[in-house]
UniProtKB/TrEMBL annotation:
InterPro entries: Catechol_dOase_N, Intradiol_dOase_C, Intradiol_dOase_core, Intradiol_RC_Dioxygenase
Entry keyword Oxidoreductase: yes
Cofactor(s) demanded: Fe(3+)
Protein name: Catechol 1,2-dioxygenase
Family to which the UniProt record says this protein belongs: Belongs to the intradiol ring-cleavage dioxygenase family.
Source species: Sporosarcina koreensis
PROSITE patterns: INTRADIOL_DIOXYGENAS
Any single Pfam family the record assigns to this protein: Dioxygenase_C
SUPFAM superfamilies per the UniProt record, alphabetical: Aromatic compound dioxygenase (SSF49482)
Keywords: Dioxygenase, Iron, Metal-binding, Oxidoreductase
Amino acid sequence: MAWRWMWRRSSITQGNTNKNNYRKDEEMNQKVVDVYNGMVVKFKELIREHELDHNDYQALVNWADELGRAGEIPLFMDVFFETHALQEMYKNVEGTEPTILGPFYLENATEIENPGVMPKRDDEKGDVFFFSGTVTDVDGNPLANTKVDIWQADSNGEYSGFAEGIPAENLRAVLFTDENGKFEVQTIVPGDYSIPTGGPTGKFLTWIDSHPFRPAHLHFLFKPQNGDPLISQVFFEGNQYLDNDVANGVRGTLITKLEKHDGAEKGLETDFYTAHLDFKLRLQDKPVYS
Ligand code: MBD
Ligand code: FE
């Protein structure tokens, strides 16, 4: 597998109140400086606590170097830290819980009809799956014309744009909610996702005796016409990794029921699955810190 991690997070929060995404040509946000500085302090303590010798120190540097060279810094950070950043931000606020964006979002996905079919290969493996959602504000008023970005792994748990042999646009789409705030896509049931086991993040997971899996999930980025974007995911009841997600991204309110249907119901040759979730967006364009 060749990994092609990209510059990311460029414009997701643009237009939002948060102007603190770092770019090389900008001053660094002071809170971020403080966190890195805290890390330096903690690292010094850890080096003393564990009585590192110079060999140990070289091993420490080498693994971090490998992480960077493999392009896995976003993966590592998102797996271990992103969920905590979100939990800090969204304490005590109403609406659907956000969860990890993760390292596999790509801008400019194919725009499809609503209801529509996610771009997929002619021989795309996996069970046929209709996912529907209703997008409202926190009071239940439908949010028409909300931009819904959806991306997911294929049935092997691989993301287009990051794994070889998958067309770039595969299983990624953008659509807009209808006048009742509803949307529906036909896709395939995603597979459980495994962190690439051969890379530095994967090696680290084996060293700390952790498995590399995330439960099967769909990713969403909602952009209402007015208000904050919502970054979230949807999971499926009964999955074996719900309570031990390597990235700690599962929220109870985001678990849906995958219901199996007889193909005949829709004139399909094979059985199919459906799932649904109501998404409630906060509209006030103000900081979410309470
Ligand atoms: C993923 O698919 C993902 O969603 C996250 C958050 C981290 C790693 C892989
Ligand atoms: Fe994912």
